[in-house]
Write a structure and sequence with these properties.
alpha/beta; globular; 35% helix; TIM Barrel; six-stranded antiparallel β-sheet
């Protein structure tokens, strides 16, 4: 679709009609990712053409146009003409999560705000929220257009040795699937809360990375909680960012097992306002 001007034109036309029909106020593009995962390198330029054409078609209707984007600067360099994203998009949702997972082969937090002392290489030191946001700003994005992504879930691991629970510890694979999300390597925050109420987990707040993790026997999970979210929202405000984006709303503690319904979303709203 990106590479064919006729298909882009049809997509833009259909998008306008769809938004009008259903009373939406905008469109968020989540193409993961132009020029990557077997896609043509020309997608980088053609993506810019698409968002320019969408912008022109949306203006008379007052529709918003945004995009979800990867967090690292190296990924942005492959996929986007960043100044054009800054020109044509109303805001840019930076997916500052899934920074680490069982695919790394070792324990790491899903969304660390800052680097850990365990991060020795230059590339490892870039894998955190702070460096990701700075990378987008350095490439020509207005801070006010950036929304910092916060996960309402955790990434889990099965430890090779339950005695080694530190960042970088060896693993045998992803953690056990949760009762609701049912996906190995992932637990919704609601599942984290429920598991911690049923079983004695050791909860640790990492003062280097400013995020919590918890472990029980051979299971380890890194996630965000109200404390780390307060710190991340304060960070977003200090960087003059546009706001906060989450993935995804249905894995907050919506039953209020922790004592508050939707504590993560509530914390975000309270801190922003």
């Amino acid at each position: 679709m990106l590479s064919d001007s006729n298909l882009r034109r049809a997509f833009v036309k259909n998008a306008v009609e769809f938004l009008k029909t259903h009373g939406f106020d905008g469109l968020d593009l989540d193409i993961e990712y132009p020029g990557q995962r077997g896609a043509a390198a020309s997608d980088k330029e053609n993506y810019s053409k698409l968002i320019e054409e969408l912008r022109k078609a949306f203006e008379s209707h007052g529709f918003l146009l945004s995009a979800a984007v990867p967090c690292t600067g190296s990924s942005a360099d492959i996929s986007y003409e960043v100044p054009k994203l800054n020109e044509y998009l109303d805001f840019i949702n930076v997916m500052t999560y899934d920074i680490h997972g069982s695919y790394d082969g070792a324990v790491g937090h899903v969304a660390p705000l800052y680097a850990s002392s365990v991060d020795k290489s230059q590339s490892a030191k870039l894998l955190n929220v702070d460096e990701s946001i700075k990378a987008w700003i350095q490439r020509g994005t207005s801070p006010q257009k950036l929304n910092l992504g916060i996960p309402l879930y955790g990434r889990t691991f099965t430890l090779k040795d339950p005695k080694h629970v530190e960042i970088g510890a060896k693993i045998t694979g992803p953690g056990a699937a949760g009762p609701y999300t049912k996906e190995a390597g992932t637990l919704g925050y609601n599942e984290v809360v429920e598991l911690q109420q049923k079983t004695k987990w050791t909860v640790v707040f990492d003062d280097e990375q400013k995020v919590p993790h918890a472990y029980h026997e051979d299971q380890w999970v890194g996630y965000d909680d109200p404390k780390s979210i307060k710190i991340k929202v304060a960070y977003a405000k200090s960087m003059n960012l546009g706001g906060i984006m989450v993935w995804s709303v249905e894995t907050d503690d919506f039953l209020g097992l922790s004592g508050t319904k939707n504590p993560l979303l509530t914390t975000i709203n309270n801190e922003l306002h």
